[in-house]
Amino acid sequence: MQDTKQTESAPPKVPEYFPVDRPWEESGGLTHLVGMRCSACGTKAFPARGVCSHCCAQSGMEPVRLSARGTLYNYSEVHVAPKDFPTPYVIGFVDLEDGVRVFGQIEGPASALKPDQTVETTTGIVRVRANGTPVISYKFRGVPS
Questions:
Q1: pLDDT tens, 19-78?
Q2: 121 CB burial (10 A radius; 0-12, 13-18, 19+)
Q3: How do beta strands 118-128 and 134-142 pair?
Q4: How many CB atoms lie within 10 A of CB 119?
Q5: CA–CA separation, 135 vs 89, rounded Å?
Q6: Could you give the C-alpha distances from 62 to 16, 39, 88, 104, 121, in angstroms and in order?
């Protein structure tokens, strides 16, 4: 006799985003972080803030779409991590083409990376909560040469 009982699987978890305001734009296959530009001195920064870190202006901060590419300044492979972060994973600083240095996760193993390597901004899962909910954020990945 054949079992007619259907197997039920749990529906996939709805992802969370970090930061919640999703400070990035995706278009044409590229991901651009959205930072700020000070109208007083032209300094760009990420994440956006209310006071310019260069000239201390307290107004005139405008949203600006940052370059999708940059160079890997430095990185480290994490083996002991906060809860819900699978190890190992790589974190690092990226110097975007428009002069902004950004910290974030880097895709792939540390052994495949090198300083001054060209990277691009992307989005992806940076951790999975204990209940199975994926957390999506910006991250970086190497660009094939």
A1: 999 999 999 999 999 999 999 999 999 999 999 999 999 999 999 999 999 999 999 999
A2: buried
A3: antiparallel
A4: 25
A5: 15
A6: 26, 7, 37, 23, 21
Q: Which amino acid appears at position 113 of this protein? A: L
| Token code pair at residue 11 | 């529906």
Main-chain phi, psi angles of 49, to 5 degrees? -140, 165
Q: Tell the residue number behind the tokens 């910006």, with chain if given.
A: 138
8 Å CB contact between 21 and 34: no
Task: Kindly tell me the burial class for residue 66, based on how many C-beta atoms sit within 10 Å of its own C-beta (0-12, 13-18, 19 or more).
Answer: buried
User: pTM of the predicted model, to two decimals?
Assistant: 0.87
Whose CA is closest to 65, among 35, 97, 26?
35
